[in-house]
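Bit of a strange request maybe. I'm writing a small parser for structure token strings and I need a real example to test against, not something I typed by hand. Could someone generate the tokens for this chain?
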Amino acid sequence: MTKRIFRSIFLVALAVFIAGTALIMGALYSYFSGVYEEQIQEEASYLSTAVEEMGLDYLEGLESGSHRITWVGSDGTVLFDNAANEDAMENHADREEIQEAMNGGTGESERYSSTLSQRSYYYALALSDGSVLRVSGEQYTVLSLVVSIWYYILLVLVAALALSLFLASRVSKAIIRPINEIDLEHPEEGDTYEELAPLLGRIAAQNRQIRAQIDEMKTKQQEFATITENMNEGLLVIDQETEVLSYNNAALRLLGASKVEGSVFSLNRSEQFRHAVDQALHGQHSFDLMELSDRTYQLIANPVYEHGKVVGAVLLLLDVTEREERDKLRREFTANVSHELKTPLTSISGFAELMKNGMVKSEDIAHFAGNIYNEAQRLIVLVGDIIRLSQLDEGTTGLEKSQIDLAEITKAVVDRLHSAAEQRGITFDLQLESAMVQGNAQILDEMVYNLCDNAIKYNRDQGKVRVSVSPNAGHPKLVVSDTGIGIPYADQARVFERFYRVDKSHSKEIGGTGLGLSIVKHGAAYHDAKVELESVPGKSTTVQVLF
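Reply from user aminoacidic:
Good idea to test on real output. This should exercise your parser:
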């Protein structure tokens, strides 16, 4: 902009200089031409008076001057000429100024010589005897004057150009300086040209709009970053060339990487991962399972379109290990339930079929009926345990909580199991203190019963079961320990799973449904309690429930 202003000012100054110079020279030429003509006219008037009195003698006695003097007779014959031989001159009767003088007393004319670039001015006065006295002079034209003084004009032009350049530079900078000093962040606060006020107002409005949009974008970006960084799922955004455009820390954590460099394949090169990425970049949705570091992940890859063309993909990595384990447990549970239900039903069906076909002696009917009854009771207990576990899983027991003394429930349970313990010579060591629990009596009873029942079943003959209840500084604690066979270290983490048995070969002899510790675990969760197990194989097992 400075260059344009400079160029404009310079060209205007140059044009004004040239036009001014031409006008001045024209005006001066016109002025001096008038003065020159007046001088010739005055000289002609003086000479005419002298010629009237003295005639030809006066003209011949004049010294040669700058003007040409010609005396023409009434018939046009040249009587005298101070610049040429009058005898060799042609008749002047046809000359314009001569004719005007003969007819009107005075006459004048101008003639130009393009060859000599000169202007000739002629002035004629008629004398009393009919003759005409003419005075003429030569004057340079404007062009000839310019040519004659070109050196000085050139010097003036150069000086004018230098002055124009200097002034144009200073003026253009002075004009631009207030504009350059405008604070574009706060354009309305600056001191500048009034004509720029509408433009500065629009810039200020646009700045406010841009700042609002930037703030909104920053807010959305922060929200997106907050959401993605707090996701447990890994998020990756890639372009068509598999370059990673965006990611969250969860993606690096799940893929076991510390940083991203270039292609997404630098994070993982497994067949499932590459297949999912390739499918997404070819416009297909992909759902694959991956195994990484003993964990199971679901990889979801979706293509990203722009104007109908795939420009990248979004990869979502979910840790589904627990879900897969739950599915596995559910399948195992279904298989175990089927097995546990099928065994007593098969026995009942077999005994009933024998009795139906009359293949049982009358004296054995009571025995077979007793077997059917026992298997039916086993089914009832099994179904009841399954229903209870389902209710605890769903949190829909339909039972209300109240303040219950855990010691009283424990004492009642031990009394019910006393006969079973006596059959194997097992004694109870009770250390019961009153401890109030906000819970459900039926569930608490089942928890204590299963712990004590297991302590008897998996104990040694003539063994001991120690049961203690203590308030424990406001956090009631139940501890059941035995002197039994213990639990192998490899199985201790799984004994709370449904239907899990450490020694399946002796499950029939020991009895039970295999759901006891599962009920204890879910009952503890229902009461916001914590279950801990310690066991030394071949020596003892201790289960602690901390409310």
